[in-house]
Design brief:
Blueprint (H helix, E strand, L loop, with lengths): L3 E2 L28 E12 L3 E12 L3 E5 L6 H8 L8 E10 L2 E2 L5 H6 L2 E4 L11 H7 L8 H14 L1 H5 L10 H13 L5 E5 L7 H18 L2 E6 L2 H7 L2 E6 L2 E7 H6 L1 H6 L3 E2 L2 E2 L2 H14 L1
Parallel strand pairs: 4-9, 4-10, 7-8, 8-9
Antiparallel strand pairs: 1-11, 2-3, 2-5, 5-6, 10-11, 12-13
Helix pairs in contact: 3-6
The structure holds adenosine-5'-triphosphate.
Length: 298
């Protein structure tokens, strides 16, 4: 499958010949079994601040899809539009539509969406600091009505994926490490029995080894439990190693998308998002130069 570019702005304007524009209907799935389709959405905050401008993306069942882009590109806004959490931020989807499992998400409350299987893990982890790890995990089951035996089984499953959480089950979350809190946030999401997790910046503020450990577990969850993942990440390198497909957002628009393996090999992605080029890793000075060049070209 080829990469495709979508916009006149940013990265898309300087695509190398290795990337080609292909038909609008090709996407993450090429038409097969999408769990989520975001169709040309526009998001406005406070009635005036236009943040997303015609964003479309797809998440096929059972896949890991990454939304990549710099600080402020619109990744979190996209996730919040999907989980219907924008109202709390005075944001609104003013154009386009979002369909999860064949139904418009705009018609469901965030609570109902959790019951239908979509859960968001917020950027910055957001554990309840005064509760223990286990109490935090149990709060994730609040929408379930399938009884305590099923909830206990889910808890054991979370502990099987995150043995560190089992070790720290009685510790107050506020006293655990950043990595453990991130694991707790993902574990809490798992307690809702999700079909799809919207994972916002799981690498944020964590040491590389921990980031790797967390991505390994997320990958295992995806492969063994079949949970679909939509991942927002600034860490392009790690995201493209684990994702099946990626979308690059710049200034609220998708400027390029394609299979993760093709994005990893694309010269522009290497240059602007991975800090690499065919000549090898660039020095910090070079990177600064390219950032400047990118701003001009954008
Ligand atoms: P980050 O990694 O920093 O979270 P991001 O790609 O997730 O970046 P968003 O948080 O979606 O980006 O922000 C996109 C743009 O929308 C930014 O310019 C931001 O300032 C703006 N924005 C985000 N939330 C609000 C809000 N509640 N009100 C007004 N503008 C907002």
């Amino acid at each position: 499958m080829q990469l495709r570019t979508r916009s006149h702005h940013g990265l898309a304007t300087k695509m190398s010949s290795s990337a080609q524009v292909v038909g609008e209907n090709a996407g993450a799935s090429e038409g097969a079994g999408n769990l989520l389709s975001v169709n040309n959405i526009e998001v406005i905050y406070d009635h005036v601040i236009l943040v997303l401008k015609g964003v479309s993306l797809e998440v096929p069942k059972g896949k890991i899809v990454a939304i990549l882009g710099a600080n402020g590109a619109g990744k979190t806004t996209t996730l919040k539009a999907i989980s219907n959490l924008l109202h709390a931020e005075r944001g609104e989807v003013t154009k386009g539509s979002i369909e999860y499992d064949g139904q418009h998400v705009q018609a469901s409350s965030p609570n109902d969406l959790v019951k239908r299987g979509v859960i968001q893990v917020m950027e910055g982890r957001h554990c309840f600091e005064h509760l223990t790890i286990e109490e935090n995990l149990l709060t994730g089951a609040y929408t379930r009505s399938d009884g305590s035996a099923a909830i206990d089984a889910s808890l054991e499953k979370v502990y099987a994926y995150f043995p560190r959480l089992k070790e720290r089950r009685t510790s107050q979350a506020g006293y655990t490490s950043g990595g453990e809190q991130q694991m707790c946030a993902i574990g809490r999401a798992l307690m809702s029995n999700p079909k799809m997790i919207l994972l916002d910046e799981p690498s944020m503020g964590l040491a590389p080894q921990l980031v790797e450990e967390i991505f390994e577990i997320v990958n295992e969850l995806n492969k063994k439990e079949g949970v679909s993942i939509l991942l927002a990440e600034q860490n392009t390198n790690i995201a493209l190693r684990y994702a099946d497909y990626g979308y690059i957002l710049e200034n609220g628009r998708v400027v390029m998308d394609g299979p993760a393996s093709s994005l990893r090999e694309n010269e522009d992605v290497k240059e602007f998002y991975l800090g690499l080029s065919t000549a090898g890793r660039k020095s910090f000075r070079d990177v600064k130069h390219y950032r400047r060049r990118k701003r001009w070209l954008g």
